[in-house]
């Protein structure tokens, strides 16, 4: 992501909460892009009255699995440390609790969760 004096070229919303979506709308430059990759469980405000004149492009969608092999190679190389992304760990017998935390991600400050035996 490069930054100009008038904002960033690309802002990525990867958390799925209203406050980070609002930040993305504010920091992207005119002609820039917002990549909405977070999973939103609640509605967010689209500040269309401010963004249309700035020619902002918004892209979103489900996980694109054709890049999984590249992601795994990046992890294997040590360039990405997935452990830093894990916010919660649960045993399999705690799956209902895990879903409750996932459902309330903003309140629980959950990002990525691990289920294990």
Describe the 3D structure:
There is one protein chain. The chain is an alpha/beta fold. The chain has 2 domains: 3-60, NAD(P)-binding Rossmann-like Domain (Rossmann fold), CATH 3.40.50.720; 79-116, no CATH class. Helix content is 32%, strand content 28%. Strands 1-2-3-4 form a 4-stranded mixed β-sheet, covered by helices on one side. Strand 2, helix 1 and strand 3 (28-36) form a beta-alpha-beta unit. The longest helix is centred in the first third of the chain and has 10 residues, at 18-27. The chain is globular, with a radius of gyration of 17 Å. The chain starts with a strand and ends with a strand.
Name the descriptors:
single chain; 117 residues; alpha/beta; Rossmann fold; 2 domains; four-stranded mixed β-sheet; two-stranded parallel ribbon; 5 helices; 32% helix; 28% strand; globular
List the helices and strands and how they pair.
Blueprint: E1 3-4, E2 7-13, H1 18-27, E3 28-36, H2 48-51, E4 57-60, H3 68-77, E5 86-91, H4 95-103, H5 105-108, E6 112-116
Parallel strand pairs: 2-3, 3-4, 5-6
Antiparallel strand pairs: 1-2
Produce a short descriptive summary.
This protein has 117 residues and is of the alpha/beta class. Helices cover 32% and strands 28% of the residues.
Percent of residues in helical segments?
25-40%
Biggest beta-sheet profile: 4 strands, mixed
CATH fold description of the largest domain: Rossmann fold
CATH superfamily of the largest domain: NAD(P)-binding Rossmann-like Domain
Kindly name the structural category. Answer: alpha/beta
Uncertain ranges: none
Order of helices and strands: EEHEHEHEHHE
* CATH domain class of the largest domain: Alpha Beta
Strand content: 25-35%
The end-to-end span amounts to 38 Å
Determine Rg (CA atoms, Å).
17 Å
- Tally the structural domains: 2
Shape: globular
Total E-strand runs: 6
Number of helices: 5
Strand order in the largest sheet: 1-2-3-4
User: Mean pLDDT across all residues, rounded?
Assistant: 88
* CATH second-level architecture of the largest domain: 3-Layer(aba) Sandwich
